[in-house]
UniProtKB/TrEMBL annotation:
Main localization category: membrane
One annotated Gene Ontology cellular component of this protein: plasma membrane
One BP term from GO: vitamin A import into cell
GO molecular-function terms, A-Z: retinal binding; retinol binding; retinol transmembrane transporter activity; signaling receptor activity
Membrane topology note: Multi-pass membrane protein
Keywords: Cell membrane, Membrane, Receptor, Retinol-binding, Transmembrane, Transmembrane helix, Transport, Vitamin A
Subcellular location per the Swiss-Prot or TrEMBL entry: Cell membrane
Protein name (database record): Receptor for retinol uptake STRA6
Length: 134
């Protein structure tokens, strides 16, 4: 008992060591407060969270367009001159489509009857063309 009293007197001011046994140490208000203080300190001092909070707390400055550096200008000029502007893009697409159509019709002659020009022809519907009467 004397040893216990001496131990408690020495460690009374230390909050990190509970004066109670392991099962009931949460009933010690000082130890309980210290444990929660440690949890709060750990959660509030996390490096990623601190960096995020600092980014949120930084005042936002109205920023105009950044001034171009010389290296940026050179890169922009290189990017502008790497590709030539396509001239007659619609003409190229149209000619490519016609070549594909010709290729398809050569390989599938049965599709010729489904063409719009073939359907507009009066003979496509079975009409008989007779010579004009005088």
């Amino acid at each position: 008992m004397v040893i216990s009293a001496l131990y408690n007197a020495i460690h009374f001011c230390q909050l990190d060591i509970s004066l109670l046994n392991r099962g009931v140490e949460t009933f010690d208000p000082g130890y309980h407060a210290y444990c929660h203080y440690l949890k709060t300190e750990v959660s509030q001092s996390h490096p990623l969270m601190r960096a995020f909070c600092l980014l949120l707390l930084q005042p936002t400055k109205p920023q105009g367009p950044p001034e171009p550096r010389m290296g940026d200008l050179e890169e922009g000029l290189q990017l502008m001159h790497t590709k030539k502007a396509p001239s007659g893009g619609g003409r190229l697409k149209r000619s490519r489509a016609r070549w594909w159509l010709a290729y398809t019709l050569l390989n599938n002659p049965s599709l010729m009857t489904c063409r719009k020009t073939a359907l507009c022809d009066p003979t496509a519907n079975g009409a008989q063309l007779s010579p004009p009467r005088p």
